[in-house]
Amino acid sequence: MIGKEAQAEFLLEAMPYIEKYQNKILVIKYGGNAMLGDELKWSVMRDLTILQFVGIKVVLIHGGGPEISQTLKRMGIESRFVNGLRYTDSETAEVVRMVLAGKVNKELVHMLGSLGAKSLGICGIDGNMLLCEKESEELGFVGKIKRVNTELIENALNVGYLPVISTVGYDDDGNIYNVNADTAASAVAGALQAESLILMTDIRGLLRNKDSEDSLIKKVYVSDIPSLIKDGVISGGMIPKVQCCKDAIRNGVNRVFIHDGRVKHSILLELLSDEGLGTMFVKGD
Questions:
Q1: Is residue 203's pLDDT more than 60?
Q2: Using H for helix, E for strand and C for coil, what is the string for 143-172?
Q3: 3-state DSSP call for residue 22?
Q4: Considering the entire predicted model, what is its pTM?
C-alpha cells in the first residue's frame, strides 16, 4: 500500500512540471556509462516514452564511445585519446559513422518503438544538420560545430516524432566528423531554443568536494562559474562539460541539468519532482 501511495504522491507532485513542459522542447544528451547495461537503457527509453506521451517535445542526442572502442578493437585499430577526446583519422571517422548512425542509433529507435514511442533515427549529416570544421589538427576529424540546421529536427517534432540524433558531422568537402555529444547537445539545444537540456553523466552532478557525493551543488548561476573554476570546484573533465552548460544558457536555453544517468528513471526524477536529482544551471546572479 505504501508503494502505491508513493506512486500517487509522485504523480501529484509531477503534475505542475508536466504542465510547464507541455509543448516545450527538451534536449537530452545520452552517452557513456549511462548507455551500459540493458536494464539501464530500458529505464532511459521508458522515461523518454512517458515524456512524449504527456506532450513534451523530446530530442535525444547520443554518443556511444564504448561501442566505438569495441568495434575499433575488433578491427585492429588502436584507440588514441588526446586530452580526453578520441583522435579521429579518416578511417576512424568512418567507423564512428558506422557504429553511431548505423548501430547504436537504430537500437535506440527500435527500443523506443517497442515501447510505443514515435521516434526517428538521424545523424548530424542528415538535413545538413551539423556543419563542422576541425577542432584542431592534433585531434584529426573531431568536429567543431560551425552551424546547426534545425529544420529536420523541427519537422520531426511538429509531426509528433522524437528525433534520435547520433553525433556525426560533416563539412562541405565531404569529410566526416566525430562530434563530442555534450558539445552537440548544447549547440542543438541553443539552436532550438529548448526549455531545458539534460546532460546525463556518471557522477551525481557538480560536487563542492569531489570526494563527497553529499556535497552536491543543487543550483549554479552562470555568473558563478568563473569563481567555481578559480576555487577548483569545477576542474578537469568537468570544465568542458560546464562550458557546454554555459554556452546553452547563453544561447537561450532556460535550464541545463547535469545528473547521474546511472540512476534508474533519472530523467523523470530530475524534471518532474520538487527535489530534482543533480545540478541545475540557470542564467543570472
A1: yes
A2: EEEEEECCHHHHHHHHCCCEEEEECEEECC
A3: coil
A4: 0.93
